[in-house]
Design goal:
single chain, six-stranded antiparallel sheet, globular, about 15% strand, alpha+beta, Rossmann fold, 17 strands
Length: about 650
């Protein structure tokens, strides 16, 4: 994996000045590519491309970037992997193209000359971000993979365009303006991330997944990015052409496709392993990796003191069953909390998903042994794995049938009782309950139920299930629009069923902006490349052809994925309540992080964007036992810490 950065400017910078500026930008993201660096500059055009390389395929200097195409027309920086590059290379060789090395970068620049940029992107199967200069057309093109696994940020102001894999690369240039995008704050406080295309900075945007942005003039208003693949079209095409085979036939076709997605991600000239949580998704990926490997796969997991957040024992059992060479690290609260001060630097756009901490820790562990790791990310979004899907399907229609005044009254009653009190009541009666009525976090589920009662429509109810903070505008004295891409995706898919609408929205928003962004920053901070076979775009398209019963059957989620796993691992080893990869935020805020958190909530906001009086009320309610406020508080703390690092 690598990092890219660059400049397109009309400010008359000399060659030496452009080279120095680009180098400063790439130095800021050295962690993404410690093995090599490169710059390419055309001062007459006002363009400079910079690159940091983490060598994975073809470790020789022939993989050096920026890389020019054979004719010299295209100059490319490319972050990521093209998994079908061998097949594309064979097609290009048949067309008369010759190659000096073995890298997928060289395949891309030859593809640009043979097919053009857009067609090459459509032919490529991988995770990637590109910045390519076309000397003939004198234009820059930025591009991103179909699911948004690799990031592209770009800044436009005063005749200068900056772009990079991380915001810290843009911030390294003197022309960058650190103006806060206050209109993005409500969405961030609600969802724990800033939804694309916005960013936390006013003059920066995130390039949407599966799109190309072509820039011809740094002084002109930027055009809108153009999609070369559309998730909504893929979803609707799949729903219009459902699979009609038997269970065995569908399972066989799916298993073959998933095995191929894993196989092509095993290509590497450096050590390779996998991150194993012990859940269905990562266990399936590891099992198929081991099937394709002639020696034990290296697997890695992290364990925690908190029993409710610890899956390390399950991961070790799965690893022993599959036969991997497993490494586990058990960390205490002190070791996990030691990461907190570094989060604003690691995540230079605020991200408040607490699983960022274990993701970083397990990435750091894996990097001590391998340079590439596969994960099971994406299984929940593609195969209906989240509890909110099952709960929403079951509860939302019933709740909408209850008159509004009665729903609001029930919401008030449920919200009045703190989570710990619900937990204590539940534990008193738990021995009397049948297994299907037992839950890990009963108080949390009651709080979610109360928020569902308070919502007025199916879309609002699903939005409440996604929300960490249900009234974010209340904490923003300047005001901020509390709608954005999540609401737009829910509204634009009203003809779909609740499950289809929820999954499509998550795939378009939460997946690239939270889950994949978290994995990218946490892994690249330690120079680890992470590959995600379940999010092969062929599997995404295939998943939309699956009838509902192939995803949810007899109340069990990810049914088809489980059928593949059961052929490798005994059912009792993986059939257990979903835990999730996270940390005990509420416990930390009440104990280890209490003084730090109180310091933030009691101090005035020097930037004047947060209503500290309202935040103190929120903190007091949390202190009184309303544990459901923990994530909302965590989002505020991450924002305050980020502002201290990046706005001061």
């Amino acid at each position: 994996m690598c990092g890219l950065a660059g400049i397109l400017t009309a400010d008359g910078s000399s060659r030496d000045e452009l080279t120095e500026r680009v180098t400063r930008m790439t130095d800021a993201i050295r962690h993404r590519g410690p093995d090599d660096e490169g710059q390419w500059v055309d001062a007459d055009a006002g363009v400079g491309l910079g690159f940091r390389r983490l060598a994975i395929i073809d470790l020789s200097p022939r993989g050096h970037q920026p890389m020019r195409s054979p004719s010299g027309r295209y100059t490319l920086t490319f972050n990521g992997e093209i998994y079908n590059f061998q097949a594309l290379r064979a097609q290009l060789a048949k067309a008369g193209r010759t190659f000096l090395g073995r890298s997928d970068t060289e395949v891309l620049v030859n593809g640009f000359e043979e097919w053009g940029i857009e067609r090459t992107m459509r032919l490529a199967n991988g995770m990637f971000a590109i910045a390519v200069w076309d000397a003939e057309e004198r234009q820059l093109t930025l591009g991103r993979d179909r699911l948004g696994k690799k990031p592209v940020f770009y800044f436009a102001r005063g005749g200068t365009i900056l772009w990079g894999s991380e915001l810290k690369a843009l911030a390294a240039d003197a022309s960058f303006e650190r103006s806060l995008n206050t209109s993005a704050l409500a969405s961030y406080l609600r969802y724990l991330y800033v939804p694309t295309p916005a960013s936390i900075f006013q003059y920066v945007k995130k390039l949407p997944a599966a799109s190309l942005l072509t820039i011809r003039d740094a002084r002109a208003e930027l055009p809108e990015p153009e999609p070369y693949w559309r998730l909504d079209e893929a979803a609707r095409a799949g729903l219009a052409d459902p699979l009609r085979g038997s269970d065995a036939e569908v399972r066989s076709e799916f298993e073959e496709l998933l095995q191929d997605a894993v196989r092509i991600r095993l290509e590497s000239d450096v050590p390779l392993g996998a991150l194993l949580s012990g859940g269905v998704d990562s266990s399936t990926v590891v099992a198929l990796m081991q099937r394709a490997s002639s020696r034990p796969v290296r697997t890695f997991s992290i364990g925690f003191d908190s029993r409710e957040h610890d899956e390390s024992t399950h991961a070790a059992e799965v690893a022993a069953c599959i036969g991997t060479e497993h490494t586990a690290l058990h960390v205490g609260a002190a070791e996990a909390l030691a990461v907190v001060p570094d989060l604003p630097q690691l995540f230079d756009e605020p991200l408040a998903d607490p699983s960022q901490i274990p993701t970083f820790l397990v990435s750091r562990l894996a990097r001590q042994h391998v340079t590439v790791a596969l994960t099971g990310d994406g299984g929940d979004e593609l195969f209906a794995g989240y509890n909110r899907y099952l709960a929403g399907e079951r509860l939302i229609p019933r709740m909408l049938a209850i008159p509004g005044p009665m729903r609001r009254m029930a919401a008030s009653v449920l919200a009045a009782v703190p989570e710990p009190r619900w937990d204590r009541t539940y534990r008193a009666f738990e021995p009397l309950l049948p297994g299907r009525m037992r839950h890990r976090l009963p108080g949390q589920k009651v709080a979610k139920m109360g928020r569902l009662f308070a919502a007025g429509s199916a879309n609002e109810m699903y939005r409440s299930l996604l929300s960490a903070n249900h009234q974010p505008a209340a904490y923003l004295p300047r005001g901020s629009a509390d709608t954005g891409p999540v609401e737009e995706w829910l509204a634009s898919s009203r003809e779909l069923s609740f499950l289809q609408r929820a999954m499509l929205t998550d795939q378009a928003t939460y997946l690239p902006d939270d889950l994949l962004a978290k994995v990218d920053r946490a892994s690249m901070a330690v120079s680890l490349e992470v590959r995600v076979p379940i999010l092969d775009y062929r599997l995404v398209e295939f998943s939309w052809r699956l009838p509902r019963q192939m995803k949810i059957r007899d109340g069990e989620s990810k049914w088809l994925l489980r059928q593949v796993l059961y052929r490798q691992v005994p059912r009792p080893l993986v059939d257990r309540p979903k835990v999730g990869f996270s940390v005990p935020v509420a416990q930390w805020l009440r104990r280890d992080l209490r003084s730090w958190a109180e310091g933030h909530f009691m101090a005035p906001d020097p930037h004047g964007v947060l209503d500290t009086a309202e935040l103190r009320k929120m903190w007091r309610r949390f202190d009184e036992g309303h544990t459901e406020l923990a994530l909302g508080l965590w989002a505020v703390l991450m924002l305050r810490a980020w502002m201290e690092r990046w706005l001061n």
